Amino acid sequence: MDRLTTFRLFLRTLDRGGIAAAGRSLGLSATAASRALRELEDDLALRLFDRTTRHVAPTEVGRRLAARIAPLLEGLDAAMVEAREMHEEATGTLRIVARRSYALRHVVPHLARFQTAHPRVEIDLALTELTGLVPAHGVDMVIRLGLPAGKSFIGHRLASGRRILCASPGYIARHGAPATADAVLQHPCLTYREEEEAPVWVFATGSGGRQEIPVTGPFRSNSGEALRRAALDGMGLILLPEWMVGEDVAAGHLTPLLAGLPSWPERYQAEIHAVHARAERLPAKIAAFVAHLLASVDPAG
Question: Which residue ranges does the record assign to the HTH lysR-type domain (predicted)?
Fold first, then answer.
């Protein structure tokens, strides 16, 4: 019998005044319970009980030992209950690292509704423009471009990878609109900031190939929101995700260009996924937040 169970048996014996009753409460026969307590006394080289044919009573050493281990076992039991509750009921702190632009537009606006439904969950949200993140070092979930390699993670698609080439109506009124992919070269383009190479926009061709256009312009940034704002202000063309500019297009604040010609910035074609570690029993706080995200997104997106 393991030492933890033996200590539980020891405390039950003191509480119930008999070895047989204590053993039954733990599913043990009187013989097995008595043998386990004898072995505990032998291991400790201490006499923990004064025994009679009808009753057992703790020795002074037994009472002192019980006083020390009882709070420890109670704390352990409470910790185990809490751990089970965190798997069965959404509770605790949910730590998320999310793609900044997506989170500001499609995660943060829905947090109040989640908190109302799951008041015992606290959200710790960090925003980033970095790619390639995975859940690690205390992070429960990442909301990122694409899926990580390997089988250690589960991803849930939140938004498509479709990008829209567009500009403001004011810009088009002043400078016109490109009629072909090559004509994009004649326009100022607002691009993601690249450290080591010039930005490239890729346009699909009818034969399944690709045409790469090295674009330039007056403004670049590592923030999609900054690029969107610059385009709304008429600074040039942008190529951003539909989930970022779809509302602007629908409202007429941005006008799609080269419709029907799929395009994307090099290395930015991936879809948005919520990613967490694979687990046989997913903590309830993660499962609840995944369900909340999926219920909040446009299924056609």
Answer: 1-59
